[in-house]
Write a structure and sequence with these properties.
The protein is mainly alpha-helical. Helices cover 79% and strands 0% of the residues. It contains three helices and no strands. The chain has helices at 3-17, 22-40, 45-51. Helix 2 packs antiparallel against helix 3. It is elongated. The N and C termini lie far apart (32 Å). The relative contact order is 0.09.
């Protein structure tokens, strides 16, 4: 299963079942995950970990 297929299936689920309240939760989880990945390879890691 490709990543594009996963996002397409998720979008169809949200659209068909009218679960629009899940979208902000998913976006925040993805952004926090990206922040954690960025923090591991950055010299700003101690400052980011103290925020999160």
């Amino acid at each position: 299963m490709s990543k594009l297929s996963l996002f397409k299936e998720l979008w169809q689920f949200l659209r068909v079942r009218k679960k629009w309240w899940l979208l902000p939760i998913i976006i925040i989880i993805v952004l926090l995950g990206a922040l954690m990945i960025f923090a591991q390879s950055s010299s700003l890691a101690p400052f980011i970990y103290s925020i999160v």
